[in-house]
Fold each of these.
Amino acid sequence: MTAQPDRRGDLFDPDCPTRRLLDRIGTKWVSMVVKLLAEAEPEEIRFAELRRRMPGVSQKMLSVTLRNLVDDGLVARRVEPTVPPRVHYRLTALGLSLEVPLAALRTWAQENMATIDGHSR
């Protein structure tokens, strides 16, 4: 059996963990959901409240974003059996750990976006 080359860190390889992660979390909506849920920790936030606090997100985009985060184990979903159902979300431990690098990225953006915007004009 031949050893497979180590593809970690090779963004050109479709199996690269970094590339696969960025495909999943590399949207502004994911970053906003994680930030809001991290701020609420350990409390849950209902769908309607998330939508209200995320200007510009459509109901469909928020639904898709949350479904993907739940499927990836980053967010937990709880449904109250009421009419209509009340749906609550919170970060899992894995999702909460994602807030650290996303917060660092937000800090970097705040410090550098004016410079980047100045170059693109």
Note: The helical segments are 17-25, 28-40, 47-52, 59-71, 93-119.
Amino acid sequence: MSLGAGNHKERFDMETNLRIAEFKFGKWNEKSANGIRRRGYFANYVSLLVVNDRHIKYFVVEDKVAFIKFFSVKATWRNVLNKNPSGFKNLEKFIIENKKEYLVTVGEIYKEFEGRGNHNRV
């Protein structure tokens, strides 16, 4: 479920004069790989990460523990975004522009950019 779900062309679920945010709510299944959920969450995270915007960025999730656990696996960002061509291209461009081509896993992406000058918060 997403708070901003709909047919409108808003960039993010919430935009104010100071902040932009994406919201994702859903239970992670302990007995499943959660592949679809991982792809969706990571795609939303990437959309905030790569946007060139002066606003403080927030990614709000229902189960932060499960989401952070996802970043500890060895999944490559290319594999996670392989069914999301625009997210794939946007992250690839962002990585190249920031000279971070050595980043391979979703965990490396998270560790490299979380909490830095881009003001991402989970």
Note: The chain has five helices and four strands.
